[in-house]
Structures are given as structure tokens and as C-alpha cells.
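Title: Prediction job returns without error message
Component: structure pipeline
Severity: low
Priority: P3
Assignee: unassigned

Description:
Job completed but the reporter wants confirmation the result is attached to the right record. Sequence as submitted:
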Amino acid sequence: MAEEGRGIRALDAGDYRAAAESFRKAVDLAPDSAALRHKLGTALSLAGDTPGAIGQFEEALRRSPGFAQAHYSLGVLLASSGRPSQALEQLAAAVKSQPDYVDARLRLAEVLRQTGRMEQSLTQYQAVLAIDPRVSDARFGYAATLAALGRLPEARDAFSEGAR
């Protein structure tokens, strides 16, 4: 717990390398903790060690397959690394594990839209808005997807509603 606390304080201070060091010590003491591995992966990602972060998220999922946050974080890194198919698998798994996980659904919708799966993207944006209608990124993404589909009157209405 002490190392985890040090890691959290270092993260809050923006010292990602020190955070990673503390979380690594915590993981050494509690290797089965998916939550600690997730924190270590987050610190590694913020420190610029994408491969190390991916490894920690994958190990967290090996130890706890339903850990939605690790699926989400892995999906985000895979998407930013140009691996959208793998990202979609991880983001969908995050949503399956935790259906009300707004960030995961939103990122899933964005990656679906970026990969041309517009109808599936609309479904995810709608699900985000059903959970929390205040998520402006979901409103914009939904309207932009409608426009990309050529459904311009609906897109215009969605953009207007979002602006309100």
C-alpha cells in the first residue's frame, strides 16, 4: 500500500518515471493485483513506454480477464499505435465487462467511426448518450457520423441539439 500511495502521489505530481518505479515495487509485492498492474501500465504509458504499458495491461487481463479498465487502456494504446482491429476487440471487451463505462463506449464509437463502421458507431454514440446525455463528444460524434452517412437533415438536427 505504501508503494501504491507513493506511485499515486508521483502520478499526481507528473513524475511518471517515479510513479512507474513505485508501482513496479508494489506489483513485485502483489503480482496478482490487476489494479496495480493497470496503474503501472498507466504510468509507463505516460512516461512514453508504450510497449511496457501494453505488456502490463495484457498481464492484468491475463490475471483478471474481466477488468474493464485494462481492456479500455489497452484499446486506447492499440488504437493510437495504428492497430484498430485489436483496439476494437479490447474496447468491446471493456464495454461487455462494464456496460455503463462511458469512456470505453465513447472510444469504441470513435474507433468504429474511424474504421468506417458507421452504423455500429451510431449505436455506441446513442448508448453513451442514453447513459449520460451531457457527453458533448458523443453528441458531436453522433452528428458527424450522421453527416458522413449522408443523413444531412438528421445531422443538422443533431448538431443543433448539441449546440443547445
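Comment from assignee: result matches the submitted record. The CA atoms of residues 46 and 138 lie 25 Å apart.
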